[in-house]
């Protein structure tokens, strides 16, 4: 029973990271109807920025906030320079743009900071939480920061004019334009927020997986799995999917014979395929019907 509880708690902690990544993926998907294959690399680059700021003597939480601001601005810049001109381009053109962005960001990070593994600090420590061996203080910190961010996003989208405008632009862009919403800039803001959310995921997971240019590859796959499981049309579903994937991954690695750590990633891919086959809209998503 203790092993089961330990795996569930550890799964919730890693699931918090997958929830952040899935939410970032869903925000961009709702804005432009495409999956951002470079979301993980953008998060990795933001994490390197945070690490570099700390190397220059900036305290952890100041570097955290500065990185979020830089990531937000960088997400808007990428959307304005690269994907706004591709707004009416074919799907494969956008896919090529995402793949190019993936390769560029990864290469620039490797050229700037090289491909050696670096230690990334945690402000929470790694000791057992309240003396319990079931979960560490860093894992509790991961869950706490993620929940605070999700609550803040919920309040933003529910009770602010910009948040409501962003929701309208994503759900009914034509109607939103008719009532004066600048849908183009709402999409750009969505990119900025998705980039900042991805930065949170990268910063929180870096002490666990260590810092290097390929650190977010597996995390992005799990984020995609979480987004598909929860529903690409549902931000709340993406968050729930992240926690479910985290717990499922840990329990599968522990209790399914022959799985171990090596087959956890294929399990995530199998989960994506299974959900797409039996429930394409996801557990919490809604099927979109278009009149033709």
UniProtKB/TrEMBL annotation:
GO terms for cellular component: plasma membrane. One of its GO terms (molecular function) is transmembrane transporter activity. It is a multi-pass membrane protein. It is found in: Cell membrane. Pfam families: BPD_transp_2. It comes from the Bacteria. GO terms for biological process: amino acid transport. Keywords: Amino-acid transport, Cell membrane, Membrane, Transmembrane, Transmembrane helix, Transport. The keyword NAD does not apply. PANTHER family: ABC TRANSPORTER PERMEASE PROTEIN, BRANCHED-CHAIN AMINO ACID TRANSPORT SYSTEM PERMEASE PROTEIN LIVH. Belongs to the binding-protein-dependent transport system permease family. LivHM subfamily. This is ABC transporter permease.
